[in-house]
Structure formats: structure tokens, C-alpha cells
């Protein structure tokens, strides 16, 4: 430990549940003892982490140390923020969140350089920046993978003798994720974008008129050579010198299980994909893909939702999702939703009227929306899903569920990025902002005219439906429609229960609307499955209550959970089965979700079921996942034989990838 503790910069990359917290605490305490022998006292250690992980650090510190030997410890959050720098300097460990690190009233991204930002931070008298830290540890360091974010710059400005970046997933989307870590760790001379790209490549340039992107090849071998001396990498299959595993864990089995569409579902999906592909081709032919990127993401989302249940892709036009009107086919609901082969106008409920503060930032937001939309939510760290995202008055983007929960936590939580107040913020839907962008920078007249025609036809059809209802049309009869995914989910749950009557399983999905259908299916199946639910709309107290029921109530065998709510910061070893209802672009959150179960403390073998539908967009997403794993493994050293075009494989949703997702060849 002595060697590691004295390195001024270190990147710890452990797969989940591999003892990152214990490793860091052992170094801190070992260093304290060494300094005592030298009759000196080291400065305090600052640990910066997501809010959901704070409790884990607090639990570890209280459980690992007897009271007489416990380091002087504080969570810098809430009322603790009133402490001065002098009071913090007398502690051994301070744990805080990325949000608490941001100085109130300062937008750090507005400064041209870190030097200018540092002067402003000094004037703000924020206590965390006035302390001389022995070391700063970033837990879940991939949180700052965007080096231009407020949090990334704030972390770089901390005054620290030693810097550690701790993460199980240092590369989530591509090698450029490492740039921000290099900047925080001060890996000179490659800790600036210019020098990083000069040495390793990977820089991207875009022609804003055509939307075409070019990326320099990545020098994988050189990047690997630089990382090797400064990164401690531990996988679950890592072994000691004698060949025995470093961490003893039960076996984990991952099975990709295919669900088969019914003939009607297959026809529905084929028609939907055909229409979405035609829309995308129209954008591509006119060079408008990146100018309509959020629309393209909505189209992709419809295809993904249709793989789970057809009704999820119908714009809410089905009165009760999951229940099919008797005498109507799935294609009828597709037509009723107005999903045609021509790009439609902004979705229903979308308004081009936006608050004045956002209007003032519209040109900057246009730059964010028009390129490949690669923004991540600063709270859950996942790629933003455009239809379910919002824009704050300060101009920052978040998942709606994440920022709503953040704001409602104590009634007046500020923006996590810039500390601007949120109590009166309307949280403008991102599609509304896109609609205003399209209004100010309109699409070509031909596309616009076609959009108006489709909108008029939809309005006429809705008026006819309203007239029929007013005339006393008979009450519509509906029956529950179990999709291929729901049927396969129930089959897998029955197998688990047959093998182990005490089994517990976590069912993950990206779509809360599909979680609704899962709960309904289990409730009415008659198979005796009792379930609880956790998603991003729940406050922390409600989440903890549901999790406690799942852990302790033997009658509850299933926990349905949104992937964002459960991908990090939780210990759920009471379960030993996981079902991932659909694949996600980035395989890292899926890996982290599995690690909630397959971690230290697990006593049973773990089975992970990944549900997919063959011949759909899900198969293509799995191929993209494999590409991202290949890039990460190559750079981090598990597969150094990869060729030097890793930069191309690392990009998210390039034009070529979009063609592939729609089942088309360019």
C-alpha cells in the first residue's frame, strides 16, 4: 500500500463489487499511520461521489472501524456546508457529492480557461476549494467524462497533493472519455485536449452543413502504454500470483434469450420499421440528419419500445396501454397514432413557446441538439433520452425523472451543474426546445408542407372520433395484450421459481411504461409472483422502503426497477437473478446493474437473462455494445491486439450506425 499511497496520481479501475471502497480506506488509514510515525499529520482526504453512493461510504467507514480507531469523518452535505475550511482541515475524511462541489452562482463553463475559473472560485470562498487536501478521490469518476462539464472543471480546481480517479468503467463510450480523467489527474503532458489528440488521435471534426463527421484514428498501443504505469485495473476474473482469484465470487451466467413475435406483432414491427426507415432516409437524402437528431432518436426509441410491447410505440394513442380494443388490429393503432413514412411535425403536446431565459440560450442549445446528441445526464450519468429530457432555465439538460427527484428532495435543491435555483423552474421539455429550434431555423419547405398535411389529417381523424363519442357510441371493450417480451419474461420467472422456490429476481427496463405492464402481468398471471417497484420518480425514502421490503419479505420475489435507478450505489445480494428486458446503447450501465447482485456478499450462483427479439433493432444494438466493449478492453489492456481504428468504433451513433439501426445499408 505504501507505494500506491505515495503516487501523486492514480486511476483505480475495478469492475463493480471488487472492493474499491475498502482499497481506498485502507490507503487512507495506512498513510495516517505512516505520518504519525514521522510525527506529522497528513491533511484530510476528500471523497467526491454521486449522491446515491454517499450512504455506501458512510456505512463502510462505520462498519470497518471500531469507534476508538475510526477516522474523523464528515459528510459535507446539507447543514454541514456551513462548516469553514479551518474546521474541514482538522478532519481525516470528508465525503461530498459532485453537486455540492459546485460554487453557488458560478457557471464554471463560462470561463475560457481553468486558470480564470480558479480565480473566480477563490473569490467565492467555497470551503472545499480553500482546503489543502492530502488526496482527492473521485468515486464513480466516469461522472466527469465530459471534460467541458461544470463538475469536471470543479474537480480539476481542487487543491490536492494526490489525486485518485476510481471507477469500474473508465471508458463508457470511447477513448475520449479518458481525456477528462487525464486532465483531473494532471497526466502531463497529455492533460490538455490539444496534446491528448496530438498523441493519441480520436479528435472529431464536423462539417456543419453536411453533418458529416471525421475522426482521426486512435493510437491504441501508445494510449495503453501511457495508462499501464498509472492504472490499477482489477477484473472479477483477476488472479493472484498463485493463480487463485483475488475476490471469491459465485459463478455468473449471462444468457441472451430471444422472444418470438406473434404474427401480428411481427407485422406491426415490420410496418413501423419500414416507416421509420423511410423517414430517416428522407432526412439523410436532404442532409438533415443532425439538424433533426432529437427526432431521429425519437424514431429509434419507438422501434425499441415496439420490441417490448406495440402499444408503447403509439404516441399514447392507445387509451389503456397493454389493452387492445376488440375488433381492432395492432396496425390500426399504428395508423391511429399517425406514424407515417414522412417526418411528422413535433409530437402532440409540444409547443414552440419556451421561457425567455432558454430563448436567450437557443443558439448554444442548437449546437447541442444538431450534432450527434451525445449529452449525458449529470445526475444518473446515462445518455439523455431526448423525449424524456428537460431543459432548465439555466440551460442545462437532465432526465426529467432525475432532476424532478433532485429538486423535490428537500424542496429547494439548486441545479447540480451551476447551482441556479430550481424551485420556480418549469423544466421545459427538450422536444419543445427542439420545436423552437426548428421554428427559428426551419427545415426545407417540402418537408414542412408534408408535416402540415399530416397534422391536418390527424386533427380531422381526432375530430371524427370525438363526434362519434358525443353521438353516444357504444362503450369500447378491451382485452389485455401480452406481448412476446411479457410472455418470455413470465416463462423465465417460472423457470427460476421451479429451480428455487426462495428465488428473488430483479427485472430491469429503461422504460417505466414497460415496468407498468410487467407489474400488471405479474399481478393478473395467477402464478403467485409478488413484486415491488423502484424507479427514478420515487424519492429516496420511498425507494429505501421498497428495497427493504424486497430484501426482507420472503413473499416478495420480484423487484422491477428502471435501469437508471439501479445501475449504481445499491447492494442487492438478496437476489441472485437478473432480467434485462432490453439492451441499451452503452453496455456499462447494464454491467453496473448486474453488479448490484453479483458482488461481495452474494452466496448463490447468479443468472442474468438478457431478453431480445431477433431480427430487430435490438440485435443491432447488441452489435454496438460489442464494439464499445472491444474499444474499452483494447485501451485498458485486456485485448491489446486491436487495430488502430478504435476511434471510429468508439463514436456514438454516427451516420453509418444510424443507417444500421434502421436496418439499412448506406
Q: What does this protein look like?
A:
With 666 residues, the protein is α/β, with parallel strands linked by helices. Among the domains are: 2-187 and 230-234, Tandem AAA-ATPase domain (Rossmann fold, 3-Layer(aba) Sandwich), CATH 3.40.50.10810; 356-440, Zinc/RING finger domain, C3HC4 (zinc finger) (Herpes Virus-1, 2-Layer Sandwich), CATH 3.30.40.10. 42% of the residues lie in helices and 14% in strands. The chain is built from 26 helices and 20 strands. A 7-stranded parallel beta sheet has the order 3-4-2-5-6-1-9, with helices on both faces. β5 (133-139), α7 (150-156) and β6 form a beta-alpha-beta unit. α7 (150-156) runs parallel beside α8 (177-185). The protein is globular, with a radius of gyration of 26 Å. Residues 1-6, 206-212, 345-350, 473-477 and 639-652 have low confidence and may be disordered.
H/I helix tally: 26
Q: What does the oligomeric state look like here?
A: single chain
SS elements, strand count: 20
CATH superfamily of the domain at 2-187 and 230-234: Tandem AAA-ATPase domain
**Major sheet: arrangement of strands:** 3-4-2-5-6-1-9
Q: N- to C-terminal separation?
A: 53 Å
Query: Architecture of the domain at 2-187 and 230-234, according to CATH?
Result: 3-Layer(aba) Sandwich
Q: How is the main sheet built?
A: 7 strands, parallel
In terms of structural class, how would the helical and strand content be classed?
Answer: alpha/beta
Task: Give the CATH class of the domain at 2-187 and 230-234.
Answer: Alpha Beta
CATH fold-level name of the domain at 2-187 and 230-234? Rossmann fold
Mean of residue pLDDT values? 78
Fraction in helix: 40-55%
Low-confidence stretches: 1-6, 206-212, 345-350, 473-477, 639-652
Instruction: Return Rg in Å.
Output: 26 Å
